[in-house]
């Protein structure tokens, strides 16, 4: 077995450099030393150490042979020997020289080129550089010719416990709810140690608490901090300072240590009920305070903070629950008592309320500690205030007949001073609401009288404002609206609803309806209008016309016979008496003008007499004169023309006025003559636009009408 291993090693290590390591026994006696010694290619050395190799080859496969170890931080008087290079080449006649190159060769590591001893000439720090890679070579001392290929090996720096644990993230802050159970995890901390974590215990840390007991504990290995007391009370102590130590070497004496601080803050839970600062509050308030005004504040203190201290306030009892309300002010955490309904000192002078403050956010864990609410009593005293007069009604509606006598009383307003002193009141009318001074008011008793006559037909409503003023304090004023409605009296007689123009056909039959008229009355009787029509007493037996009342309050005028003739009488005037149904009734006489006209067989009016027409209303004097002048001129021309023609029996040519002539000639062509009123209707000229609506009823041919227009244009 040793032989086989030797052969294997020989195959692996042909360059045959022997690394023989001498370790200073005073510094280091680690068990791993054995492995370092097993650095051999020499059959002699191997046979000497085969026993160790055998053991190690069993216990640890793949061991690395080509490395040396040097202890960090070594600072003795002499450079420390790291190891020795050795080759088993037969030195024979030649002298061998060892050459070292690579990391730190010559600067950190020096080699004795004859003996092969390697020394570290500088102090090494594993935490700075843990290993160095170097190359060794054996050369001929004289020729410097390599005797074998270069061989690489590693010098590892051996750790010593030269670094203390450090809390890199400290100091720490953590929170834990108050009233937590024992062993509640708060946080954990971590220390780091720069020493080799895989070698020795230099980096094996153990945690402990130096300060902060008995409130907190720490798990030595995991550094988890937990509460060590149950039910710690934030309201008693809110903040704790914990000093934590980490010690290496597994916590054994001689190890290095580091500390940090942890500040633990207890967070609030709702473990305290609200408590009113006073069990009785006194407030006073003037009776005339505006609704919604804050009257007072009540506050229940709560040792908790934040939402755990929030309470809602309520009025739960008392004789003023309808008049007052309480609102919770989340900001100030108090309750504001406000007025909801008007107070009246004269009715009730004090109120008592029972108010309650109840925590909003209850923690069920503590609800067994009792109700998280409190009550207090609030006494509110109402103070008297000087109040303005109060009218017996917020508004008044008065009615008065339009024929009421001047100074007659229309109605009365009353008002009183609600105060105990009860000042007398004086009344006045706000003249801005009665600009025409239609009414007066008795300043003492509030009786409203009529100052000027009323007319319902002018104004139905007179809405005025009455002012009441306290005599003892003129600044105490109230106003009230008074609506005065004017009631109707039958003071207007009925009359024709419009200006009627009646026409009667010469060829009409007896009993024909000439015109239907209706009446109107400015008054407004309750049951509507009912009119009575009659002929004047002296005309009751009028031989020419009769009247007939219709269902709809209108009246029809009928012809009594058919013997009407324009030649005999062109116009009839028919006075009609109309009376209303008022009490007493009023009546008036309206006269209907009836013109006799020539009509077609089917009763269409074709021509009425000239004189029957009234000049159109609305023309200016100048226009009328111009029209008249025009008519006279035309008449003269026509008469002249007709006369001349009869005498000479030939057309007359008027050289100076051809336009007029042409038109006249055409009329003449149709027959002409003084009797021909249809062909030459002067009324048409006077009223060419048919303002009175006559023209369409004449049924004149359109052509004729246009020609007449032309005549008028040419003349005027
Ligand atoms: C006056 O008051 C009455 C009743 O309030 C109302 O009906 C009427 O419209 C008012 N008239 C005027 C002109 O304001
Ligand atoms: C009735 O008509 C005739 C002529 O047609 C007239 O003389 C008489 O005065 C008229 N009577 C009345 C009352 O209008």
From TrEMBL:
Keywords: Calcium, Cell adhesion, Cell membrane, Glycoprotein, Membrane, Metal-binding, Repeat, Signal, Transmembrane, Transmembrane helix. The chain crosses the membrane at residues 613-642. GO terms for molecular function: beta-catenin binding; cadherin binding; calcium ion binding; identical protein binding. It comes from the Eukaryota. Coiled coil: none annotated. It is a single-pass type I membrane protein. InterPro entries: Cadherin, Cadherin-like_dom, Cadherin-like_sf, Cadherin_CS. It is found in: Cell membrane. Its main location: membrane. The keyword DNA damage does not apply. Residues 87-167, 168-276, 277-391, 392-496, 496-618 form the Cadherin domain. One of its GO terms (cellular component) is synaptic cleft. SMART domains: CA. One of its GO terms (biological process) is synaptic transmission, glutamatergic. This is Cadherin 8. It comes from Mus spicilegus. The lineage of its organism: Eukaryota, Metazoa, Chordata, Craniata, Vertebrata.
């Amino acid at each position: 077995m040793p032989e086989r291993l030797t052969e294997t090693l020989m195959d692996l290590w042909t360059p045959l450099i022997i690394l023989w390591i001498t370790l200073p026994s005073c510094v280091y006696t680690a068990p791993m030393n054995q492995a370092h010694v097993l650095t051999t290619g020499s059959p002699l050395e191997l046979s000497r150490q085969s026993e160790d190799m055998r053991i190690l080859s069993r216990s640890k496969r793949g061991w690395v042979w080509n490395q040396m170890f040097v202890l960090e931080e070594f600072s003795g008087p002499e450079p420390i020997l790291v190891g020795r290079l050795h080759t088993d080449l037969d030195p024979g006649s030649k002298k061998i020289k060892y050459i070292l190159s690579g990391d730190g060769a010559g600067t950190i590591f020096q080699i004795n080129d004859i003996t092969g001893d390697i020394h570290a000439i500088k102090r090494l720090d594993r935490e700075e550089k843990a290993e160095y890679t170097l190359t060794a070579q054996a050369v001929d001392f004289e020729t410097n010719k390599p005797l074998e290929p270069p061989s690489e090996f590693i010098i590892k720096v051996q750790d010593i416990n030269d670094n203390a644990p450090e809390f890199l993230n400290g100091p720490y802050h953590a929170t834990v709810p108050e009233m937590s159970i024992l062993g509640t995890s708060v946080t954990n901390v971590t220390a780091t140690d720069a020493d080799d974590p895989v070698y020795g215990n230099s980096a094996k840390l153990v945690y402990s608490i130096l300060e902060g007991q008995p409130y907190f504990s720490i798990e030595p290995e995991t550094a988890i901090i937990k509460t060590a007391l149950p039910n710690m009370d934030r309201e008693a102590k809110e903040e704790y300072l914990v000093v934590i130590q980490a010690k290496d070497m597994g916590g054994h004496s001689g190890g290095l240590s580091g500390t940090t601080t942890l500040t633990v803050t207890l967070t609030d839970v709702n473990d305290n009920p609200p408590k009113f600062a006073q069990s009785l509050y006194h407030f006073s308030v003037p009776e005339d305070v505006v609704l919604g005004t804050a009257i007072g504040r009540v506050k229940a203190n709560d040792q908790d903070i934040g939402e755990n201290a929030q309470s809602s306030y309520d009025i739960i009892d008392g004789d003023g629950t309808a008049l007052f309300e309480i609102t919770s002010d989340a900001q100030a955490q108090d309750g504001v008592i406000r007025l909801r309904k008007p107070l009246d000192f004269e009715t009730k002078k004090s109120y008592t309320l029972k108010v309650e403050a109840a925590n909003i956010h209850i923690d069920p864990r503590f609800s067994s500690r009792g109700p998280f609410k409190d009550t207090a009593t609030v006494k509110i005293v109402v103070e008297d205030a000087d109040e303005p007069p109060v009218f017996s009604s917020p508004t008044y509606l008065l009615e008065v007949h339009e024929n009421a006598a001047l100074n007659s009383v229309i109605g009365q307003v009353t008002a009183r001073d609600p105060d105990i002193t009860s000042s007398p009141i004086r009344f006045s009318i706000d003249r801005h609401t009665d600009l025409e001074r239609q009414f007066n008011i008795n300043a003492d008793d509030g009786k409203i009288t009529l100052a000027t006559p009323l007319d319902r037909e002018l104004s139905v409503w007179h809405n005025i404002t009455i002012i009441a003023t306290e005599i003892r304090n003129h600044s105490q004023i109230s106003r009230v609206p008074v609506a005065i409605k004017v009631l109707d009296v039958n003071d207007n007689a009925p009359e024709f609803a419009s200006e009627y123009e009646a026409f009667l056909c010469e060829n009409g039959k007896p009993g024909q309806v000439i015109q239907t008229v209706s009446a109107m009355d400015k008054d407004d009787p309750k049951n509507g209008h009912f009119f009575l029509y009659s002929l004047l007493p002296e005309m009751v037996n009028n031989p020419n016309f009769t009247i007939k009342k219709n269902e709809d309050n209108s009246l029809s005028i009928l012809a009594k016979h058919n013997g009407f003739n324009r030649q005999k009488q062109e116009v009839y005037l028919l006075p009609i008496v109309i009376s209303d149904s008022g009490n007493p009734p009023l009546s008036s006489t309206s006269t209907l003008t009836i013109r006799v006209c020539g009509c077609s067989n089917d009763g269409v009016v074709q021509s009425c007499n000239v004189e029957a027409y009234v000049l159109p209303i609305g023309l200016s004097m100048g226009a009328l004169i111009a029209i008249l002048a025009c008519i006279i001129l035309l008449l003269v021309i026509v008469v002249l023309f007709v006369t001349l023609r009869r005498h000479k029996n030939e057309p007359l040519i008027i050289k100076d006025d051809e336009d007029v002539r042409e038109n006249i000639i055409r009329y003449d062509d149709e027959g002409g003559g003084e009797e021909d009123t249809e062909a030459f209707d002067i009324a048409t000229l006077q009223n060419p636009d048919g303002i009175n609506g006559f023209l369409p009823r004449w049924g004149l041919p359109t052509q004729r009408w246009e020609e007449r227009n032309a005549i008028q244009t040419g003349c005027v």
